[in-house]
């Protein structure tokens, strides 16, 4: 009786494993889409508004519709006159012109100024550092940011990092490209020629060294 029970358990476990294996083969998630930045070189950079930014919107002679607004996760804000205004991905100047067009329905010749208080920006504009960095994270891009600036913000490399085999991933003309970056030469040897310009949306992958 005990042998029959044990055999039944084994068969049941085998069927369960087979079932789960079959299910897993049909539940593959699609790869994430990397959204390219609008900045293709360091001289064309313009700050784009993103979720979490705090915007000060001033409407001249209309304080009742002016104020401070937090950009929602869906990239929109709500004002006293308009519930949903798409703001993410626009420059402050572009947004000001868009709001003027919207408010023209309610006000005569509105003049709008938009300033940003808390800078977050869209994910597509952030620089991401993963792997063997001391503090891997996403960094808000700043104009003329270089590889050295990024490595300072992430605290340098771990003791296990293979910095000279690090890879920079960048989307150019809609295509993903990879470049080798020599972080060890830059940080340990002081080789300034290894410093390179960063662009919004860059991803740096730092592998572990094989000892």
TrEMBL record:
Protein's cellular compartments: Cell outer membrane
- Residue intervals passing through the bilayer: none
Please give the Pfam families that the UniProt record associates with this protein: Poly_export, SLBB_2
Membrane topology per the entry is: Multi-pass membrane protein
Q: Does the keyword Disulfide bond apply?
A: no
Q: How far does the signal peptide extend, from start to end residue?
A: 1-26
Would you name any one GO CC term?
pore complex
GO terms in the biological process aspect are: monoatomic ion transport
Where are the annotated coiled coils located? none
Q: Which InterPro entries does the UniProt record give?
A: PEP-CTERM_polysacc_export, Poly_export, Poly_export_N, SLBB_dom
According to the entry, every stretch annotated as the SLBB domain falls at 126-206
**Polysaccharide export protein N-terminal domain segment(s):** 44-116
Q: Where mainly located?
A: membrane
Give a GO molecular function annotation for the protein. Answer: porin activity
Keywords in alphabetical order: Cell outer membrane, Ion transport, Lipoprotein, Membrane, Palmitate, Polysaccharide transport, Porin, Signal, Sugar transport, Transmembrane, Transmembrane beta strand, Transport
PROSITE patterns referenced in this protein's UniProt entry, alphabetically: PROKAR_LIPOPROTEIN
PANTHER family linked: POLYSACCHARIDE EXPORT PROTEIN GFCE-RELATED (PTHR33619:SF3)
What is the similarity comment for this entry? Answer: Belongs to the BexD/CtrA/VexA family.
Q: What is this protein called?
A: Polysaccharide export protein, PEP-CTERM sytem-associated protein
What organism does the UniProt record list as the source? Colwellia psychrerythraea
């Amino acid at each position: 009786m005990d042998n029959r029970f044990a055999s039944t358990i084994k068969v049941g476990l085998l069927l369960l494993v087979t079932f789960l294996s079959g299910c897993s083969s049909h539940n593959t998630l699609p790869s994430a889409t990397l959204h390219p930045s609008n900045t293709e070189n360091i001289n064309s950079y313009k700050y784009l508004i993103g979720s979490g930014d705090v915007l000060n919107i001033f409407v001249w002679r209309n304080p009742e519709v002016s104020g401070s607004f937090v950009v929602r996760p869906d990239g929109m804000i709500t004002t006293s006159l308009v519930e949903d205004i798409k703001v993410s991905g626009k420059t402050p100047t572009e947004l000001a012109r868009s709001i003027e067009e919207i408010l023209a329905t309610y006000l005569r010749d509105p003049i709008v100024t938009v300033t940003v208080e808390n800078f977050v920006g869209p994910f597509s504009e952030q620089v991401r550092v993963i792997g063997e960095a001391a503090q891997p994270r996403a960094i808000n891009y700043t104009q003329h940011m270089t590889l050295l600036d990024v490595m300072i913000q992430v605290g340098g490399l771990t003791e296990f990092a293979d910095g000279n085999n690090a890879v920079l991933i960048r989307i150019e003309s809609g295509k993903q490209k990879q470049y080798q970056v020599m972080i060890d030469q830059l940080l340990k040897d002081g080789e300034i020629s290894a410093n390179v310009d960063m662009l919004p949306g860059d991803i740096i992958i730092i592998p572990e060294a094989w000892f």
